Amino acid sequence: MTDFTDDTENTEGSEADPPIYRSGRVRIIGAEPAGDTVREVTGPVVEEHPDMPHWNDAPTGQVPAVLDRASGTEPLVAPPTWREEENDWEAQEELFEPSMLSDDQPAVGSLINDNNEEVDVERQPWHFEPDALLGSDETLFIAPEFEPLAAMATVAVPEFEPEPLPAPVVPTQKAAARLTPPRPPQPRAARSPRTSRSGSRTGNISTAGTGGRDMRVAVGSGFLLGLVALACFAAGNLAAMVIVSIVVLLSAAEAFAAFRRAQYHPATLLGLVAVLSLMVEAYNKGVAALPLVVVLLVAGTFTWYLVRVEPEAEPVAGMVSTLFVFAWVGGFGSFAALLLNPNLFPNRHGVAFMLAAIVTTVASDVAALLVGSAFGKHPLAPAISPNKTWEGLIGGALAAVLVAVVVVHFIHPWTVSKSLIFGVVVAVVAPLGDLSQSMMKRHLGLKDMGRLLPGHGGILDRVDGLLFVVPATYFVVKALHLG
Fold first, then answer.
1. Which residues, other chains included, contact 98 with Cβ-Cβ below 8 Å and sequence gap of 6+?
2. Long-range pairs for 187-193 at CB < 8 Å and ≥24 separation?
3. H/E/C letters for each residue in 376-412?
């Protein structure tokens, strides 16, 4: 029982009553004193707490870090260091970035407003508010309101008016020729007689399978060219070399021009100089001229495109087209100079070999044209040359063998047996050269390589098979030991 009266007198009770002690404020009944003296509390009561472990301290924002305490010049990783106390962070501050301990940077994951200031916002990822969280007028996310399907059915859809399509691009004649697939040859009954350039119908000579050429003009120009060639061959090796070099050089010029029209940009000047040099050197030095001219041309072509003589040219396409035309026309044509070389084939035997190659090749071409026009029904290679037929190929092969045996064996030093072998080789090689040139024209989108010969197109169109026959003639002569 507690008595809150402020009595200061000390009255002694009876033995039955418990002793009474006075502390000045509260009288406690039934308590015994802790000692002889009683301490009187006069100030406010201070509640004391025991010392707590260090992990109950308030967070300081400092985290342990493993830093390099290695000293010296070797950039080795030292053993890990535990940083916990303040002096641990102050030591060796030059070894780490000061911003690691700076309070200027915002906390990781905190919200930042437009002024790059941290915003103290309670994060509640499960709760979305339409108002802005960053203190600006913009809203972060507003949940869309979905209307029922019945209300959506009554919404009027705005009319969509498409933009007008651009006008179609009409391809040029060259592009259309490249994109248009070749037409299969028409049946014999569906063919109609062609008209010449002057508009008149052709007469007795059928032009079916001739590509619409004026055969009268073609025969006349071919006959005139043959007379000039025979006159030069009769004059001797040098005159024959001149006419052969002119033909090869003009053929190379037509090939370079065709590739330039197809945007290959070959080095035409270098190629023509290389072709003419190869012809002259092959006539004077023989086979040893070929590697020298080839090396000089390759080096010159690299230099041509390195100094950018033609800035718009693509180097790879230009170099490939330059070397290809040189090898095709110049390389194959140089065997004519080798045949006419008096040091390799004296006593005008080289003229006899070249004359045999020309006569046999012309006979094969003419017979293939006439037989194919009259009896051709089975296309030979419709994707490459629709007008060539198997009947024309067989007719040209038979004519080559027949002319070689009947005519060529009268030209010394040819014999009947060797002429027969030579005729068989020409029958195989001449159509191959003709088809190869047709394939190139198809790729370049051209009908003719040139227009220098009336009724024929270009010179390369007439000597395409002969370019393949001349190297074959050289190797046949070597193999048969005619030289």
1. none
2. 188/377
3. CCCEEECCCEEEEEHHHHHHHHHHHHHHHHHCHHHCC
**Cβ-based burial of 459 (10 A; exposed 0-12, middle 13-18, buried ≥19):** buried
Distances (CA, A) of 452 to 338, 459, 461: 27, 7, 10
Distance CA 222, CA 365 (A): 12
| Closest to 244 (Cα-Cα) out of 118, 92, 393, 357 | 357
Cβ atoms of residues 219 and 417 within 8 Å: no
What pairs with residue 201 in β-bridges? 195
Are the C-beta atoms of 278 and 289 separated by less than 8 Å? yes
Residue 264 burial class via C-beta count within 10 angstroms: exposed 0-12, middle 13-18, buried 19 and up? buried
Helix, strand, or coil (residue 294): helix
Residue 328 and residue 109: Cα distance in Å, rounded?
73
Ramachandran assignment for 189, one of left (phi > 0), alpha (psi -120 to 50 degrees), beta (any other) = alpha
Angle at 440 between CA 435 and CA 442, to 5 degrees: 90
Q: Are strands 118-119 and 111-112 parallel, antiparallel or unpaired?
A: antiparallel
Please tell me the distance from the alpha carbon of residue 302 to that of residue 296, in angstroms, as a whole number.
Answer: 10
Q: What is the DSSP string of 304-352?
A: HHHTTSSTTS-HHHHHHHHHHHIIIIIIHHHHHHHHT-TTTSTTTHHHH
Closest CA to 211 of 198, 197, 224, 222: 197
Residue that is written with structure tokens 């109950």 in the block: 56
Angle, CA 262 vertex, CA 258 and CA 266 arms, to 5°: 70
User: Chunked in runs of 10, what are the mean pLDDT values of the chain (483 residues)?
Assistant: 46 50 54 54 62 77 59 52 65 57 60 64 58 48 51 52 61 55 47 36 37 65 79 89 94 93 92 95 91 94 92 90 95 94 90 93 91 88 87 93 92 91 95 91 84 76 92 94 80
Q: pTM (2 decimals)?
A: 0.56
